[in-house]
Amino acid sequence: MSSYAEWREWLGQARQAAIVALPESSIWGGAITSLLIGLLLVATAPCLGKEVTGGLGLRVGAAGVELEADDSMIIAGGIAPGKASGQEGKLRAVAVVLQKGASGKLAIVACDILMMTRQWLDPVVAEIEKTTGIPAASVLINCTHTHHAPSTVILHGYG
Predict the structure, then answer these.
(1) Which residues, at least 6 apart from 31, have a Cβ–Cβ distance to it below 8 Å?
(2) Does the pLDDT at position 145 exceed 60?
(3) For residues 128 and 70, which has the higher predicted lDDT (pLDDT)?
(4) pLDDT of res. 56
(5) I want to staple 94 with a disulfide (CB 3.0 to 4.6 A). Which of 30, 44, 64, 123 is the partner?
(6) Is 68 exposed, middle or buried (0-12, 13-18, 19+ CB in 10 A)?
């Protein structure tokens, strides 16, 4: 992809592929699907960046998306279930994709959520690998472990 317009078109195609590939959730309903689609789109940011080290051939691409949540969702990580009343700040998923020469790409993703299980991560990583060619072993997805985001897992009997 050599232009911003091509990249935006590709993101639209990736979003459609993600909608088909991702599991449905009874935990967040459509919100978890949006989160995972956002994760996919962030992680697959193309390395369109400029070379960042003098002649060493390191290329970097970065992107971020806001994760959608509303006050009806149970907040993660408390001893008892609770719901938000408003929002202190934005929840985001951000990613950096690094590439050095022909050695391949590495994707590092961070999500402002408490935690995610393999049930959600494995399909996302598989779609990233299928869509971008970044090997699953070269994709790192990290959760910031915030206790101020909607729950993505059942903890303490709720979620």
Answers:
(1) 68, 69, 70, 73, 150
(2) yes
(3) 128
(4) 67
(5) 64
(6) middle
Q: Tell which residue, 15, 18, 25, 35, has the closest CA to residue 114.
A: 35
Judge whether residue 85 has pLDDT over 50. yes
Distance, CA of 140 to CA of 107 (rounded, Å): 6
Is the model more confident about 139 or about 58? 139
What the block records as the tokens of 110 is 């961070």
Please state the length of the chain: 159
Contact 99, 126 (CB under 8 A): no
Of the candidates 62, 46, 36, 55, which has an alpha carbon nearest to the alpha carbon of residue 4? 46
Q: What is the rounded CA–CA span in Å between residue 18 and residue 123?
A: 9
Cβ neighbour number for residue 9 with a 10 Å cutoff? 12
Phi, psi of 104 (to 5 degrees): 95, 180
